[in-house]
Structure formats: structure tokens, C-alpha cells
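Input (Acyltransferase):
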Amino acid sequence: MPTAPPQHQRFVLLDGLRGIAALFIIQRHATALLGDELPSSYLGVDLFFGLSGFVLAHAYGAALADGRTSTFAFMKARLFRLYPLYGLALFLMAGYFVMLWMAGLPTPLDDLHRPIDLQELSIAVVTGLLFVPAPFSLTLNGALFLVHPAWSLFNELVANLVFGLWGARASTKNIVPVIVLSALVLIIAAVEYGRLHAGFRWNEMYAGMARVFFSFFVGVLIYRFRSSSPSLRPIVAVGCLVFVASILAFPTPKSLRAYFDVFVVFCCWPALLVVASRCIPGPIAGAISSFLGTASYAVYVLHVPLVAWTEFLLPQITDSRAVPYAGLAFVGILTVVCWHLTVALDQPLQRWFKNRWRKP
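Output:
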């Protein structure tokens, strides 16, 4: 079946929000370089899910709804969008663990620092290549994917499949129950775990799926009910960028994290998406947003292996006297490298794929 190309309007401010969230996710996984993790930074993942629902509803919703794009073609496009840089991250992560095994060193990415199990590593590589979770939590890193952040990508692909098969054509009254059910499950997860930082192990899978289905389909409905095209609002745009950074850096007390997380996911992120989707930033904020948005996916998927390799090859940067300055320099260099990888490697591959995809 011939397929319609996605819509090309770019919501630049949304790119900036995604980029800032990706930088905060680095901080969670680079505590040896940057100091203690910020207690609310994991909520950036829920923002990712909401942004994805909005953007995919814009890019593919109409074409999926009227049959110009098939679900198979949509999922093929989604996999190819994710896979090149994910494949690079998987290669780097597998190489890192092989290197540790050859050196006789335990994994530093799991709390118990257990020795490298080559059989487990082989299983993790195979399931990783298939983009599915391992059948057990890995002792290598305590997660279901060798590339730890891939748990959220897998969950999003599940939501994408549901969107392609049903959601793009479903009415609002049919989508709302999915959102309500997901919200109830999120409340259960918040009570069980004391926060919404869950979803990357099998016993937490229900929480991860609730996180993606709630925020993704909220994003879809926000796109459907947008009231106007974006307009130039430079002050509001800067306020949106500051707001997302403030939420992710907020020092939430442990006793209040469950309430704070639910409030942010249920109220703050949807409201932010409504406002930010109507704003065009000024030239400086727009340039920063465009740069961060271009780099954001590569930053998200590559930061764990690059942090691991950097700490192994340059252990002196984890010295207490270098923290957090060396870490901040690392984040800056990582972001620039990821921008170049996106522009020089990923975007040409995406263009090649789209050109082949459009052929009958």
C-alpha cells in the first residue's frame, strides 16, 4: 500500500523541552560525574511520552485514520527512527561488558557488582537486537535491556502499535477510558513504590505501561483539540523551558514524592504541552531548542554507554575534586557529539529510509 509522508511542521519549543528532559536524564545515570541524582529528574520520561503522542498524532494521525498509511508502514517507520542510534548504543554497551569480562572486572552498573556472565550477556544482546526485554532482570545492570533507557523505547513502541491499530481512528470518548484506566494504575504504582520511578523491571512492567499509555494518549488528545497554530511568544517560550527544568530539578522530599509525581504527570506536563505547542520561541531560545531537540534522542539512547566508557577510560574525572565540573564538561561534549551523530549519521539514514518508504 502506498503510504503518505508525515507532516513536516516542526514544533521547535517542544524540541527544546525534550532536549532539556534528556539532559536531566543524563544526570540520573552519571552520579559519579555530577553528584547525587536529582529526585524528580525521572519525570522527564513521562514528558517524553506526552511529547511523542502529540508529535505522532500530528505527523501520522490523519494518514493512519484515513488509510493512507498502514499500521505496518507506521511501525516500520518508528523502528527505523529508533534503531540506527539504538543499534550503536547496543554495540557500545556489549563491547563495554566484553571488555570488563576480558579484564576480569565486575559490572559497576549493578548494586551487587557481580562478575560478567557471558551467557547472560549473549541473551541480552539477542533480545536487545530484537528490541524486546530480556526474560529476566539482568545482573549486568539491573534492567531488562542492555541499553538501560531502551525500556521506555520498548514501552513507547507498544503504545505506537496500539495507536496505529486503533488509537488514530478511535474517537475521543473511546480514548478517554484508556487514559482514566492508566491514571488509576499510575496511582496504584505511586502508592506501591512511593514515586513513579518504575517500569524497567518485570515486576514493575504494569507501572511502565501505565506511564506511557497515560501520557502518550493525553498528548494525542491535546493535539486533536489544539485551538490555534503556534504564534511568536518569546517570553512564554522561555518560561516553558525554565518550568520544565525547575520541575525536573525540584528537591522533592521523599515523603511527598508520590503526590508530587502524580501531580506533575496528571497536571503539569499536560498543561505545559498545551501552552508550549502554541508558542514559537524567539531567535535565541529557538536556536537552543532546535539544537537540543536535534541532539535529544541520541543523548537519551547513547548516554549510558558513553558514560560507562568514559568512566572506565578516564577514571580520574570521577575524583571528588573534579565533581561536578568534569561532569558538566562531559555533558556539554556529549551533547555536541550527539548532535553531530544525528546530523551526520542518523538524519541521512532517515532520509534514505523515507525515500524508499514512499515508493509504491
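Strands lie at 231-232, 279-280.
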